[in-house]
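Hi C.,

You asked whether I'd gotten around to modeling the 268-residue construct. I have! Everything is below, sequence then structure, no commentary in between.
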Amino acid sequence: MKLSLCTTGFKEWDIEDIIKWLLPLQTDVKGLELWNKHIERFQEKHGPLDKLAKLLESNGLQIPSISGYTTFSKLWNENEHRNEFNQAKRLLDIAHQLNCPLIRTFAGHIASRNASPEQWSETATELKKIAQIADLYDVDVAVEIHYDTFADNIESIHKLLQDINHPRIKLIFDGANLYVDQLDPIEALDSVYSHVSHVHLKNYHYNHKERYKNKPAPIFEGDVDNVRLLEELRKRNYSGFVSLEYFGEEGVPNLHASLEQVRPQLTI
């Protein structure tokens, strides 16, 4: 396994600032999972993408994924849907240029149990269209497992994969997102592992009655058994990236602690 960081937790920073912050801490991080807005900001300041590629390469960093915020479930809003589709195509082109294997998307903007048959069918159809375009770029489209989306439990994930039915559609596994709805991450990993191309790792002390009062915690101190999750990934010889993902004011200190905790646990 290889360790990376999600830059979505550093929205106000530039990529150069994230790298400067990261490098003195330790040498185990091998990748940056880039938020699409960070890439846009870099291009506005510096121009061609080959400059970004050289910056990352010179610092020993790969790009395991590019994180967009598309859902493909708001087809009633023609402008928003067109913007999402165009964003996804642009990210596929960027990923190809930067030798990044996948782009991140969400599937739907509401919980799977609340999706109408029409919403579900439309979203699956649109994701299949994007997957067909992705094939031209030799880049995968990874649906993040996330609460309040169509990929929020084992059954809905399998149905989504079956309905899209395209080999370019992969999964980003996030056990902490499943635990929001009190689902067992290990059971889910067992069921969907063959489709997993990337992993997010974070932790919380959960408040299941008021989920937005969840308190972030270092990866081995919250309610999710991330030690066991990493053990299960090792058993399956998972060789991809695991991205630490933290947000907000408490993000940086929890990220610091998580980097210290993960060093002896990961075989980098």
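If it helps when you're writing up: The longest helix spans residues 117-137.

Thanks,
B.
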